[in-house]
Amino acid sequence: MIIMLMKNTKQTLTSLLFLGSFILLTNHTFSQETPLFHVGISEGILANRRIIQAPRAVLETDIQFGVQFAIESGALNVFGVYRLHGNVRSGGLKSLSFASHLLGAGVESRFYKGKPVSILIGLAVLTEVGTNYRDKYIDYGVPVYPNPTYSNSITSEPKYSNHFYYSTPFASNIWIGFDVALFEGVKFSFSLENSIRLTKQRYLEWEEKDLYETSFDELLHAQQVRYVFLDRIGIRLGLSYTFSGQSNQHR
């Protein structure tokens, strides 16, 4: 399991580095125009690749602040990003019962040459700065209720086993799609997206008798933290606005 996780993580990081290098190398010629300010907001709905085992979706809301550079093929946005990642309402759990707050940076390249519809490709890399869900039940990256299991014995006590969320030290998204100019400086975008999260979790098996002399927190914190790799795909809708602080120029 550890070997597979390391292999998947290495492949993903390699892909991210390659994509970032591709965007920058293919757009190395910047014009002499003054960079514009860029503000964007997007909403992604994502499902686990193993949708049969984990059918529930998650939402990701991104807010971007940065600058846009004019380049030969179109425009290049470089931005900081805040993300709210959380679950949707499902199975008696409210939306954002699990909420993860992340900060990071991103880059997005638009290829349009002045046309009203442009192709875009982008990536973002983030890390978690806060959550409301540390040490709580989780399965495939979404909150769950503990499920007891029983042996064949009528008198047996229920046994419990669950993963418990700790943190997300690394998260990244890659998206490709198109955007449409709504009016001056404002664009609407639609993209297909691949989202990855490298999370830290603990796994615990316990029975009620285990809690007679030891607290649940002590049992849980005695378990080793494990890395769990989550890979999701979905769609991403966004709005962006570019403007100049000195004039009414837009891109």
Descriptive account of the structure:
There is one protein chain. With 251 residues, the chain is mostly beta strands. It has helices spanning 2-25, 216-221; strands at residues 36-48, 57-71, 74-87, 99-111, 117-131, 137-139, 142-143, 148-149, 159-183, 186-207, 226-243. The protein starts with a helix and ends in an 8-residue tail after the last strand. An 8-stranded antiparallel barrel has the order 1-2-3-4-5-9-10-11. Residues 1-9 have low confidence and may be disordered. It is elongated and about 75 Å long. 27% of the residues are buried.
Rg is 22 Å
CATH class: Mainly Beta
Poorly predicted regions: 1-9
Q: Summarize model confidence as the mean pLDDT.
A: 84
Q: Give the second-level CATH assignment, the architecture.
A: Beta Barrel
Largest sheet: 8 strands, antiparallel, barrel
CATH fold type: Porin
Note the topology:
Elements: H1 2-25, E1 36-48, E2 57-71, E3 74-87, E4 99-111, E5 117-131, E6 137-139, E7 142-143, E8 148-149, E9 159-183, E10 186-207, H2 216-221, E11 226-243
Antiparallel strand pairs: 1-2, 1-11, 2-3, 3-4, 4-5, 5-9, 6-7, 6-9, 8-9, 9-10, 10-11
Can you give me a brief rundown of this structure?
This protein is mainly β and 251 residues long.
Distinctive features:
single chain; 251 residues; mainly beta; Porin; eight-stranded antiparallel barrel; 2 helices; 11 strands; 12% helix; elongated
